[in-house]
Amino acid sequence: MATVRTPAFDLNDWVQNRAREVDAALDLFLPKATAKPATIHKAMRYSLFAGGKRMRPALLLAAAEACGGTIGPALPLACAVECIHTYSLIHDDLPAMDNDDFRRGRPTNHKVHGEALAILDAHQINAGVTVFVSIKTDKHSLNWLEKFHTAVA
Description:
Blueprint: H1 11-29, H2 38-48, H3 55-66, H4 71-93, E1 102-103, E2 106-107, H5 109-113, H6 115-135, H7 139-152
Antiparallel strand pairs: 1-2
């Protein structure tokens, strides 16, 4: 009897593909770096596109697929998760917190754009969570948004 072999699952390839999809969605949904106020939008993009594996949004997309869903409708929520993560990293790097000079081999947001702009930038990214979740306005997404805002309040 002939054995049918299925190709091995390549986790690294899968994560890289999901990271590209999340990056493309972030690029689509976020204001361009030149949009006014360009100073804040440039700083937002500096941190959101600083590299990284995008593991958190990839796990959200994997959960959507595991539950029989597809990636498309889950992408706004994956972007929201990445925004929360990036927001927390910017705050963590601030002088009043860990005072880190580098993140992922690059100067931190506050080292490049100044502390005040880094704080504004982080809060603008956090506000983006609401935008991403509102793109997908089903009952479950709105419930998630309510729980998120309750948790951070």
